[in-house]
Write a structure and sequence with these properties.
Layout lengths: L2 H25 L17 H16 L25 H19 L10 E4 L2 E4 H26 L25
Antiparallel strand pairs: 1-2
Length: about 180
């Protein structure tokens, strides 16, 4: 398999992983806490989702042929804490990811030399994907951090639970 195809497959797996991590974190947050903000300069879980969805729509719509910062995007409005329900929030979440996957899944090695633009700045396809992958990973990290602060009951670990690291070592008898 060609290295670019391997890279794309890896990127898609990572995007799906971060989508899943975000969902697992949000599932553990009570509905009424999805809109909580620490202060006026911070974002609620719902606002982070709204921003991510807005970014995904802008960056991935017509990915190979138009600037990733669309003229129709209202970025400042993405930070208004005005989502009112989990259903509304999750609809935005799903729609954003759908745009991303619809744009990225058909990309092939023939696009390796394609230059795309984000805010008039040229990027290779790989650089543009990396830019968005790290952007979304940082926001999913925020969702996980907020989830741990806002959940009710016992947090279901999204990786190795505290105190269980020894169970995950390669030489552990259970493995």
């Amino acid at each position: 398999m060609n290295p670019f195809t391997n890279y794309l497959d890896s990127s898609l797996r990572l995007f799906r992983f971060y989508k899943s991590q975000g969902e697992k974190a949000m599932e553990q947050i009570p509905d009424e806490k999805l809109f909580w903000q620490y202060n006026a300069d911070s974002n609620s879980v719902a606002t982070i989702v709204k921003h991510m969805a807005g970014n995904m729509h802008s960056r991935w719509t017509d990915f190979l042929h138009s600037d990733g910062e669309k003229s129709w995007r209202k970025r400042d409005a993405e930070f208004e804490n005005d989502i009112r329900s989990r259903d509304e929030m999750m609809q935005l979440w799903e729609e954003g990811w759908e745009v991303l996957f619809k744009a990225l899944e058909p990309i092939g090695s023939e696009h390796l030399d394609t230059t795309v633009f984000i805010r008039n700045e040229p990027h290779t396809v790989i650089d543009a994907i990396n830019r968005q992958l790290t952007h979304y990973a940082s926001h999913v990290g925020q969702l996980i951090y907020l989830g741990k602060m806002l959940h009710s009951g016992t947090w279901k670990s999204l990786s190795i639970p505290k105190g269980q690291s020894e169970n995950y070592k390669p030489d552990h008898p259970a493995r």
